[in-house]
Amino acid sequence: MGSPPSNPFAAAVRRLYRPLGFTKGYNVILFFIFAGAMLTVCIARLKFFDFHGTMCGEGVGATLPGECYWYKKSLFAEIGIRIHLYGVLPAGILAVFQFIPAIRRKSITFHRVAGYISNVLVLIGTIGGFMIAGHSVGGGADIQVAVWFLGIVVIIQLGLAMWNIKKLQIDQHRAWMLRAWFLLGTPITTRIILVFAAAIVTKQNNYLQTRHCEHIEFMLQSATKTLEFYPECAAYFNGSNPDQHAIVRASMDFNRVDQMSAALGTTFGMALWLGMALQAAGIEIYLQLTPKESDRLRQISYRKQMEAGYVSPGNAGLTAQSIGDANPFVPPAQRRAGLDTEKTPLLM
Fold first, then answer.
1. Percentage of the chain with pLDDT > 90?
2. Is the model's pLDDT at 239 over the cut of 50?
3. Distant-in-sequence, close-in-space partners of 269: CB < 8 Å, separation ≥ 6
4. 186, 249, 290, 336: which has the fewest C-beta neighbours closer than 10 Å?
C-alpha cells in the first residue's frame, strides 16, 4: 500500500480515490482523463438516439455538417448509423465502470456480465460503422480503409482479451482490453485533431472538394443560394445532368455550412489515422511503464491455472512462452529457490 504521503493535499486526494480501488495517483489521473472523456462523450451523444428529432430532424441536423444528407437519403445508411449509435454509446458507458478497480475486485459477477454485454455491443456498433463508412464525413477511400481497419483490429483485440481470460491469463486479458478500449477512444482524439486541422486548412485557403449539387442544396437549405454560389448546379436543377457536382472550397466559415463540410471532409481521414496512431502508441507506452501490475497479474494467473490443473501454469494464454522461444513463466519465489526453468514443461 505504501507509506502515507506527507503532503496534506496528497493525503486528502488519496482518501478520495482509494475507495475506487486505485493505489497509484497517476492511474487516477489517467482514468479521469480518458475514461472521463469517453463517459462524457457517450452520455452527451445519447440524445442522438432520437434520430428523426434531435439528430437529423428539420434542417441539416445536429451532427457534422452535411452528414444527415446521407442518412436521410439512404435507408441502409440510416440503419447503419442507428446500429452504430445503439452499440457504441452504451458500450462506452459500461466500459468506464469496467476499469474501476473496486468494481473488478468486489463485484466479479457485474464485471463479467457487463464485459460480455459491452463486447457484444461493440461488435454491433462496429457492424454499423462498416455500413456507413462509405458516407462518413465524405466517405473517401482513406476514411473507409481507416474505419474498416479500426473495426477489425478492435474486434481481434477484444477476441484475444476474451480468449485470455478463458485461459485464466489475467495479465494478457488486461493488456488486450486496454488496447481495444484505447483504440475505441480514437473518435474522441480524432475530433480534437479535426478542429486544429480544419483551422489550418482554412488558413491555407487552397483546399477544394467536390460535392453533389443535391448535397449542397441540402446543406444550404435553398436552391436559390445553391445556384448563387454554384452556377454549374443549374444542370442539376434543370434535369440535364442529375449527377452534376460542384467544387466547394474547404473553409470553416460558420456562415457557409457547405464549406465547413468540405473542410471537415478534407481533413477527417488524416485526423482519423493520426488519432489511431496516437491512441495505439499511448497504450503501448503505458503498458511498458507498468510492468509491476502485469507481473502481479501474471502471478495471480499462475496460481489460478495451477489450481485448475494446467500443465504449464502462467503460460496458458497468448504469452511469449506459449507460442514462442521463451522460458516458461516461473513465480519469483521459485526462481529464488533455484528452479531450473529449462526443465519446466511447456504447455502444448
1. 67
2. yes
3. 138, 140, 142, 143, 146
4. 336
